Each structure stands twice: as C-alpha cells, then as structure tokens.
C-alpha cells in the first residue's frame, strides 16, 4: 500500500470518523484506511468496520493515538488526521496514482470547510528548522521508513489528553529535522477543516492546564536564538490578545526536563 490515512478520534465521534472515507477510498488498494479510537475500553482491540481498520485504544492522549497509528500503518507514507476534517479526494487520488514522491516529509495546505478561505496564511515554503512550528499535524504526510529507522515518535507528554495539551506535531517535526529529512511543501489543498471555532481563541487556549508550559517546551526543543525569538514572539502575541500575566509566568518559569 502507498498511503495510510490515519484518523485519531474518541468513542463518541467514531461514526463521524467513519464518514470521512467513502466507497472510492475503501475500494482503492493503494490506500490503508485506519482509525484509532480512544475510549473507556477494558482492553485494546481491533475490528474491520465497513472496510476500515479500527483500533480501539484504552489509553488516552493524541500522541499515543498517533504513535499507535504509526505502529499499525501499512503504507509507504502515513498521513495524520483528526476526526473533524474533510479530505481532498482530488489530492489523494493524484498522490497515489503518480507515486512520484521519495521525500521524507510532505506538507500540504488546509482550507476552511465552512468558508471560502484558507485555514491560515501561507507566505512561503516551510523548509527550514523554525518553519516546523508553522505546520499543523493534519498537513503532515511522513515517510514511514524514515521515522521508524530513526525512532521518531510523538511525545506522549504533549498533545490533547496529555499533561501539556499542545505542540506535539512541532516537537515531532523538530525531532525529524534533526535527521536531515528531505522535505516538500506543496501548494495543494489536501484537507478541509472548520474555521472560526470559539474554542480556539487565544485566551481560552492559554487558560488550558499545561498549555503555557507547552510553549516553553517547544522553545527549548527549537533551541538557540530561534528558541529565544519564539518565546519573545509568543509573549508579544499573548499580550496582544490580553492573555494574563499569570499564564505568561507559567510559560516562562516552567523547567523543561
């Protein structure tokens, strides 16, 4: 198989996750369709639902979900998705039909699923170390051999459901970058995601337990002048969005182990 599409979800959203894949996806032999469903299960288990491989995971945390997806994937490439997206069929079938990629990391672009807008600003190619902070997890298509041979995994202390609920994709990509990956940053829209969500406002994000500390972890992983610049830029943006000094203090005083 050429491409594993791995969706991370929780038990209450399983039906929505299954709807991401239609018959065209299910019938294509170049696609490995995989859902990691976390919930209050007595034990980890597996079943095939409508042609889709579903792994039930009793552990919690987005990074644990992503790591299990890597372990169970069968494709040359693995694409990490959430359960609230819509996939560009045009991109997927072009990707698997051409089979022209030999890169270690491939990034695509996100468009709003509920508006005629891009999900975020794309100004230039994301190829340098500090650019790894500008890539969302659902934009990442990774060469499985590259990450397996170098033992790159998602940090289970980061991401939704973990101690620090942010930054898991940034640290994952920075760890990949330490091994000099060949990167392609496509201009193609590969996935659609809802925009204008109230839960994503800066003040609400910074109020989450562990969120400020995750920023310090990212800065430390980035390291050097770029790490310092990241902290300064993050502080400035937080102040601009009326984030409390208490939250900023949590970020700046956190000791990264």
Automatic annotation (TrEMBL):
One Pfam family cited in the UniProt record for this chain: Glycos_transf_2
Name of the featured protein: Glycosyltransferase family A protein
Domain Glycosyltransferase 2-like intervals: 50-124
Transmembrane portions of the chain: none
Superkingdom field: Bacteria
Matching CDD domains: Glyco_tranf_GTA_type (cd00761)
């Amino acid at each position: 198989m050429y491409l594993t599409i791995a969706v991370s979800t929780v038990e209450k959203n399983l039906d929505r996750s299954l709807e991401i894949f239609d018959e065209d996806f299910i019938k294509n032999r170049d696609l490995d369709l995989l859902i990691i469903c976390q919930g209050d299960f007595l034990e980890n288990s597996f079943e095939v639902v409508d042609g889709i491989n579903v792994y039930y995971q009793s552990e919690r945390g987005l990074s644990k979900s992503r790591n299990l997806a890597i372990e169970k994937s069968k494709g040359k490439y693995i694409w990490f998705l959430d359960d609230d997206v819509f996939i560009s069929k045009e991109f997927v079938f072009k990707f698997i039909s051409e089979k022209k990629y030999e890169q270690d990391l491939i990034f695509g672009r996100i468009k709003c699923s509920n508006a005629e807008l891009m999900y975020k600003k794309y100004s230039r190619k994301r190829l340098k170390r500090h650019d790894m902070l500008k890539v969302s997890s659902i934009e990442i298509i990774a060469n499985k051999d590259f990450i397996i041979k170098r033992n790159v995994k998602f940090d289970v202390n980061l991401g939704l459901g973990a101690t620090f609920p942010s930054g898991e994709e940034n640290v994952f990509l920075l760890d990949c970058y330490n091994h000099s990956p060949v990167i392609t940053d496509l201009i193609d829209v590969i996935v659609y995601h809802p925009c204008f969500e109230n839960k994503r406002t800066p003040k609400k994000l910074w109020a989450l337990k562990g969120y400020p500390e995750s920023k310090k972890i990212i800065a430390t992983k980035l390291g050097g002048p770029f790490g310092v610049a990241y902290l300064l830029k993050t502080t400035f943006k937080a102040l601009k969005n009326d984030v409390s000094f208490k939250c900023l203090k949590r970020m700046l005083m956190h000791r990264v182990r």
